[in-house]
Amino acid sequence: MWTYDKRLEYPINIKCPNPRLAKFIISQYGGPDGELAASLRYLSQRFGMPDQKSKAILNDIGTEELAHLEMVGTIVHQLTDKVCPEELEKAGLGAYYTDHGVDIYPQSASGNPFTAAYIACKGDPVANLQEDLAAEQKARATYEKLIDLCKDDPDVIDPLRFLRQREVVHFQRFGEALNGVHEKLSQKKFYMTNNSYGCDMNNTTNNTGNSCGCGR
Amino acid sequence: MLNTEPCQETRAEMLRKIREYNFAIIELALYLDTHPEDQKALCLHREYAKCFKDLTDKYQKVYGPLTINFPCNKWRWLEEPWPWERSDF
Fold first, then answer.
1. ipTM computed for the complex
2. Residue A107 DSSP SS3
3. Closest to A156 (Cα-Cα) out of A78, A88, A84
4. How far is B56 from A158, CA to CA, in rounded Å?
5. Global confidence as pTM
6. Which residues pair with A107 in a beta bridge?
7. How far is A132 from chain B (nearest CA, A)?
8. Which of A136, A197, A143 is nearest to A169 (CA)?
């Protein structure tokens, strides 16, 4: 289960509201490569991981992504807080303001609402971790584009750089977890109770099989 | 599955109490959010928060960390079962 720490992972104090930047940064909140999608993807994938390290890393990175979701939400909030509707409209947020005011709504920069379609869970640990490695690189690339777009405000760039750096670390850890999964899958006595292929490809002496008794 | 825990009963019992204390804290916190002046609820919260801290400290020293904030000489965070895996506790 989870508990809440009443603090941000990295401090955010943006002095000058800037709705133009908020319109782009919202993508890291509820866009396809955003923190919400990342967190839910990892926390959902962890159930199917075959070894201790990959379970732990998906659990812990999925948890850290929730802290990043809060940071991105905070950035968007501080960039739009107390901005008048006319300024929001000039920044291209007229439609957003109509539907959501200045609440934080999970959507992409182009305005698509968050969808569970962003959460890839393939039922295959290698495919899932490869997806996660790509997701971290895409998030890093997105943060770099955002940093380019925000270069006139150090208050915004600073937390974005922190978030970008975390994507790099996550990529590294996922790579190590993937190596561990490959090792585990190549063990002779490895068994996976939900897949029939595991029985054909491996020594099944110790195979406990599916609990439904189908013999797989 | 073989029972390899030194005292299964104690672990299950401790975890049940940790859950109870924590649930009491969650429930009291929700109530206190909308009734911050209620001294009786505040007093109960203090009592359960202390019970929860003492028991989780004791539990973690024996059975490993419940959160990544708990200091370890060996990284026992990886130990199974994870909460979503079947176990006797």
1. 0.87
2. strand
3. A78
4. 37
5. 0.89
6. A113
7. 20
8. A136
| Interface residues from chain A to B (CB-CB < 8 Å) | 1, 3, 46-47, 52-53, 55-56, 59-60
Sort out which chain A residues have CB atoms less than 8 A from B67's CB and list them. Answer: 3
Q: How far apart are the first and last CA of chain A?
A: 33
* Per-residue pLDDT reduced to its tens digit, A129-171: 999 999 999 999 999 999 999 988 999 999 999 999 999 999 9
CA dist A163 and A65 (Å) reads: 10
Whether residue A9 contacts residue A67, with contact meaning beta carbons closer than 8 Å, is answered with yes
Per the structure block, which two tokens stand in for A201?
């490809």
Q: Which two tokens stand for residue B55?
A: 């028991």
Q: Between chains, do A53 and B78 touch, taking CB under 8 Å as contact?
A: yes
Task: Name the class of domain A19-187.
Answer: mainly alpha
Residue in the structure block whose two tokens are 């009734």: B35
Chain B positions in Cβ-Cβ contact with residue A52 (cut-off 8 Å):
78-80
